[in-house]
Amino acid sequence: MTAPVDQLRSDESTKGPRALLVNPMVYDTQYWPEWSLPSGLLKIGTFLRDRGYRTRLIDCLFTDARRQVRKTMRSVVELGSTSERAYQSVRSERRTLRPNEKYKYVFGQTLAEFRDALFQLGTVQPDLWSSSSDPFVPDEVYVTSIMTYWWESTVDVVRVVRQTYPSARIRVGGIYPTLAPEHLQRKLSEAGLDFELMLGREFESTLGNDGRDIIVMGEVPGASWADLDFGLYLDPRYYHGPGPSSSTYETAQQDPRNYTPPYSILTTTRGCPFDCAYCAQRAYNLGNTKVRRRATQDVLRELRDKAQKYGVREFAFYEDNFLFFPGHLQEILQGIIDDPFLKPTLQGRLHLSAPEGVEVRLAQMQLETIQLMRQAGFNRIYLPLENIHREVTAGQWNRKHSTVLHFEQAVKNCKEAGFSVGDMGINAFVLFGTPHEDIQCVIDTALYAADKVGSVIPMLFTPVPGSRLHREYEPYFAEMGYDLHHLNGKLLPMLELNRREKPELTASDYLELEAFLFRLNAQSVGGKPFAPSGDSNVAHAFRQFIVQRQRKITSLS
Amino acid sequence: MSSAGPRTKRPCLPTSKRVLLVNPPVFDYRYEWVKWNQPLDLLLLAGRLKKVHGCDVRLFDFMQPDTNGRVPRRPAEAQLQDGRPVLNRTLNHFGKTTREFEEFLRGLPTHCQWEPDEVWVTSLTSFWWQSIAQLSVVIRAAFADTKLVVYGNYPRFEPDHARRSIAFADEFVPSGELDLRSETPAFELYSVPPAFRALDSNAPHLLELLTLYYREGVRDFVFFNDPLVSDDNQSFVTVLERLAGAGDQFRQLRIHGLCGLHPEAISEDVVCLLRRAGFCQLHMEPFRDGDVFDENGYRRLAEAVKKGGFEGSDPLDRGVSAFMYIGLPDDDLCDLVHRALVLHSLFGNVILKPYSPTPGRTHHLEFQRGLSQDYSPELISPHRLPCRLLSGVSEGDYLELYRLSAFLNYPVRGHTFDFLGQSYLSRTIARSFADKRWVFHDCTS
Hints:
The complex is a heterodimer of chains A (557) and B (445). Chain A is α/β, with parallel strands linked by helices and 557 residues long. Chain A is built from 23 helices and 18 strands. Chain A has a six-stranded parallel β-sheet, sandwiched between helices. In chain A, strand 7 (140-145), helix 4 (151-164) and strand 8 (169-174) form a beta-alpha-beta unit. Chain A is globular and about 80 Å long. The model of chain B is unreliable at 1-8 (pLDDT under 50). The radius of gyration of chain B is 24 Å and the shape is globular. The longest helix of chain B is centred in the last third of the chain and has 15 residues, at 333-347. Chain B has helices spanning 40-51, 98-111, 129-142, 153-157, 159-165, 206-215, 234-244, 268-277, 295-307, 333-347, 362-369, 388-391, 395-409, 424-435; strands at residues 18-23, 26-28, 56-61, 73-75, 92-94, 118-121, 147-152, 171-174, 196-199, 220-223, 254-261, 279-284, 319-326, 350-354. Chains A and B meet through helix 17, helix 18, helix 22 and helix 23 of A and helix 10, helix 13 and helix 14 of B.
């Protein structure tokens, strides 16, 4: 019997080397699976397949039908410190968490489940369809790794791969290996694994002929603009359609849409000329500031392919700077609107998003582009406001190119284009948790954003290796004994530094600050949330009473 | 308060008859605690009719939740909308549809060989009279000879209007005319037992009822008596003491204190008793003399509540909130904001309780005098804020007050934020407000 989805993989080579692609699980206190597809890994999938490889995927973070990822307890971490205790030991104390503690979870498959999946891949499974049950012992294993603070699971996964398939050559690539290759090399070495460092462009030229285990830094040029290989998900383990008890089960098994993710990611530009102190994109692009772009026709072709073959209706643009080239995004959006195939099928039902934001300096100049975004299917737009105080943005963060005036004009353009205010149509990123931070400035920024756009997206600062701020505070990290996983923004890595200037600051204050920012997006009543900085009579009375009451208790300047 | 009407003799309950009891749908702009709607009056009446009068009783409860545990809500019919949304809200129809009721009525003789001799339709308020008027037409169309009785607070508070408006009704029985406290509510009339039980705290056999239902697997209970705890209700306190002393027997009991908890009757000891007896949430009524905001009194109350073990916003785990009236004729907007902030600071949650003037009382008369149209009871629905015209506070400001309460009550990680607190953050926020630091001045050059 032929496995139903194997018909869709019929173009796969039968003789080429075997490559297993792995997206590891994540150890963290929170994880948002939305838009978290391992896009780089899936491009490598296309890259390898085009070069005759047979490929398989283990995506430990594949979401269920409700787009959720399972989580299991791992440990309890203390904010602003290196303290981490196994969950069992805290559980035995039978107490609730303290305000400065958080649970850390394993999101996705556990290591044991991953080991089982690895083992099953390489063994005959008589219960599965015959051709899919052929053992797949990989010659090469490609492990992706994204956040630097998720390094632990990367090392764990590599270790298990080595134990299970001692002969397979392992390649680890992605953001973390590019930004902190020596760190990864050291950690693997401590686990008894010997890896070499290699640039992506060199790796491409030695593909298939290198018997070493390799940490790949930077892009693999042949994969940069490749399509995401959704065919990797055409595997029984990813089936998420109706179950065997359903009358439509037989048909559903033939439908690729019941295997693949419901959305896809597009990256159409790489590189950014700016160098904001908290951003590591320059290091991630290996110092290359030149902005490169993907050909419009290739973008539209992939869009069409994903929509037609896999029924994808949601696309997220993950870009370094996609308004940089005048007309670039316009061409793509106009292409979506005008395409003879896409137009009748998708117009009005296509959901587009740019979750990382649109640079305000450019958004304030390009009204037509913003209008096209709305027309093509963007319902929300995210604008990086970060902070309204110039001494912070320009003085501390080197963010000289973007000002509040730009933001205000960008908001004006968004409103004119039809993006709504007050129900997350227009959203402002606000960065906090930074070094030497004045929380006053964060609050000012949040109140400003709430007043202007009604939706505040709090972004906790993570000192990313390769960024200016990481370099500047390396002595502090060393003093604190921080490893990369301690720099996770959710753990408030800069808390102790900031407490040296303001001893009264506590972890609770930051958690409450984050809660305050979330609260500004509290449910709408009659179409709008309450804006504490607004001009309504209630807002005036609210502010007046709080000030009077606080003045009564303490002295305010 | 107006009298119950010209009819003075006690209502005559039917004997050995078929009686259909109806809890009607609700037409209103909002119904926050719709899931707690349960026609206890009808269920007690059913208990009496079955046990004492030998009647064959059936029930149609429009407000029974669906299989998802929710009471349906949809826009009310266009003819009921008066074209002027109040606080940006339009009139809603809560509960099952009239069509579902018609089908049920048609099925009674057809499928069940059963036709009612009497139909009793209850009413929780007078301002929900429109659904009763609609139902009376449907019932009369289905059963030309059936006696139709309108029961409850509508005939109690608006007897003249009821007689004029419910033309097909044969009798009006105001609430309070029948003493049904000793009856056992007939929950068996539900084909699917309700998830909770509403009970009368004055029932002489209350403890037996609680024990019975608890043994049947019911865990959630609610009392709508007002006041719930008072010096005049020692029997209820005795029941609470028995529950508190029962050890593990009622370990999973959850009593929801949704109303009737007046600060004057609440001390730390009382709160402890409530907690030990199984209360899982408390909603504190305002002080009776609301003209002067007694902040110290509320502070003492909040301390008592906290020491008694209630804190936070979890309705299943000792959550607490304070009610605050809005829509009173003497409302002052700044004062309302002040009260909301203080109550929120003290209790963690503040719930706006819109005011409705009681028919026959001073505010109601003032309201009627100020009307530019004919009076009709639906106009005093609290969600229309009927007395706002007397106070001068605008609709927009009241809507903004609702936004403020949603903002204050929004829980993050199970907690709300105290803007009047003394944390570093609350002081910093106050400083931002004092200096208006978010107002941007162009200094980019």
